[in-house]
Design goal:
By secondary structure, the chain is of the alpha/beta class. The chain has 16 helices and 11 strands. The strands form 3 sheets. The protein has a 6-stranded parallel beta sheet, sandwiched between helices. Strands 7-8-9 form a 3-stranded antiparallel beta sheet, covered by helices on one side. It has a two-stranded antiparallel sheet with strand order 10-11.
Length: about 400
């Protein structure tokens, strides 16, 4: 069954990205319908291909599979003149050229902005770099852990749990966030081109974009330089911000007001909790906060997760089951909408894909192509170029 084209159908993106940031950006654009032509080295391809276990080929590692659907792979050796010439022909048919190589590396290959613009005057050239031009870090290498450190992200967990060791979030969050910014920037540049006919150079610096993302709420008390205040958003860094154990799992409860809290506590066996002896005898506001969360935990433990989900829906108390790495795949909502879809890669067999979350009435997102083998579409794409000339 052929999937319906997405809202970016008809756009061609020449993709020289690898690792996480770039592939996440181009997969997002591919999910939206763009024709993503992933250019890979025939001698190994994207470096994520051999990271982690693959069933058969050792070239379909889990992260590669998660980041490279809806793409066609063309194998070109850009160290040879023949490979560079073929890429030049490919660029001439594209709307967007995107890479996350260091500027000097892409320049050595002959595909810096000016060279690419000479091939296609209205090209949108998207370059993801570690640090913006003009500062002492520009030109330095950048990876997720480096950006989490420089952005201040490594200091946030200590605000939450009191462990003063700096450490990154257990997620490749800087790469993925900047990948989304790269996709946003590409769409904005396409809109400019639709209005004016002009292509342009677009730089996506990781440090600046990720710092702006991760620190939005944590600047907090430092917002006004002349007014003393603390760094860190108080609601997000409280140690009480965590799921409550139920009889058979966990649930997150976030009452919108005191009435909602009272209702949850009443359902969990604490009627009129705010006027209870236990609450009123707590000395001081901080002690009462501790008692409140103790009662919330004890209340949650009196019922199963499903019972709480039903009761909270009935009484309009915001709540949601909290999944772990096993229960996630059994979540009733995700199962009902088919979010985790079993598909097949020819060389590997069955794999689990996550369907695009965005919904479009007229031009829906879809998984049209499974992650490709290295150079799987080389002949198809080059034949297309020959016909075009």
């Amino acid at each position: 069954m052929t999937a319906a084209p997405g809202p970016l159908h008809g756009l061609r993106i020449i993709d020289l990205t690898q690792f996480v940031l770039g592939p996440y950006a181009t997969q997002t654009l591919g999910d939206l319908g763009a024709d993503i032509i992933k250019v890979e080295d025939p001698n190994g391809g994207d470096r994520q291909r051999n990271q982690g276990k693959a069933p058969k080929s050792a070239k379909m590692g889990p992260l590669f599979v998660a980041l490279n659907r809806n793409k066609r792979s063309v194998a070109l050796d850009l160290k040879t003149q023949e490979g560079r010439d073929k890429l030049k022909k490919l660029i001439a048919t594209g709307d967007v050229f995107i890479h996350n190589m260091r500027p000097e590396a892409i320049a050595r290959l002959g595909f810096a902005y000016d060279e690419v613009k000479a091939l296609k005057s209205d090209i949108i050239y998207v370059e993801a770099v570690g640090y913006a031009d003009g500062g002492p870090y520009s030109g330095r290498q950048a990876f997720d852990d480096l950006i989490q450190g420089a952005s201040g992200a490594d200091a946030l967990l200590s605000l939450y749990d009191g462990d003063h060791a700096l450490r990154p979030f257990p997620s490749i969050i800087a790469d993925k966030t900047c990948g989304l910014f790269a996709a946003i920037a590409t769409l904005a540049a396409l809109q400019h081109k639709n209005r004016t006919g002009e292509g342009q150079y677009v730089q996506v610096p990781m440090l600046e974009t990720f710092t702006g993302y991760i620190q939005v709420e944590h600047i907090w008390g430092k917002t006004y330089p002349e007014i003393p205040g603390k760094y860190g958003h108080p609601t997000t860094i409280t140690p009480h911000r965590r799921p409550y154990p139920t009889k058979d799992g966990h649930i997150v409860v976030l009452p919108a007001d005191r009435e909602g809290s009272e209702k949850f506590l009443e359902l969990g066996g604490f009627p009129d909790a705010y006027n209870s002896k236990r609450f009123l005898e707590a000395e001081g506001g901080k002690a009462r906060v501790e008692v409140y969360y103790e009662m919330m935990r004890e209340a949650a433990a009196t019922r199963t997760t499903k019972e709480w989900m039903d009761l909270c829906a009935e009484h309009s108390v915001p709540a949601m089951r909290a999944n772990d790495g096993d229960s996630l795949f059994e979540d009733p909502h995700l199962k009902a909408i088919g979010f985790f879809e079993e598909r097949e890669i020819k060389s590997e067999g069955k794999y689990r894909a996550m369907r695009p979350g965005l919904q479009f009435e007229k031009s829906p997102c879809a998984i049209r192509l499974d992650p490709p083998a290295i150079g799987e579409h080389t002949d198809e794409v080059l034949a297309m170029l020959d016909k075009a000339t």
